[in-house]
Design goal:
Elements lengths: L8 H4 L3 H6 L1 H13 L6 H10 L4 H27 L4 H14 L1 H13 L13 H10 L4 H25 L2
Length: 168
Amino acid sequence: MAGLGALTFESLMPDPSVLATWGLPGLFLIAMLAGSVVPVPSEALLAALVYGGTAPVTAIGVATMGNVLGALSLYVLGRWVAAGGGGALGRWYARRREKEGPRMQRVEAWTRKWGAPALVMSWLPVVGDAFVIAGGMLGVRPLPFVFFVTIGKGLRYLAVALSAAAAL
């Protein structure tokens, strides 16, 4: 492997201009990855598509559906870890929880206190994923999970689309 240089996720991602040519399917894919633990700029692609003429309502719907699907992967991870699941994903989560420390504890406390409605906060950068995983670990039922995560993520994409449309 010598001579290949540093291989990172960013080096494997296509150029953003290429992603824009993928249109709505590309937006769905990027939003789904962004809803999981992969840090990709789904908001930038949404804004570019809206600015390029894609109907904002359509773009918001596609991005929200992809992002919620990605969030479901974290929800399942949380449920699995809470049920005693281990493996590489369980160890990854344990390291992340240890690294996040007090922030993760606050997110879990908020989710315990407010239940499923706390998942509206899943739109937040950095701690949004923690809310999603906490929802799974604390046993939030799937339907309320999807409902409140969809509201949070949909509102974020609505704000991005409105900003892009205002720039026209």
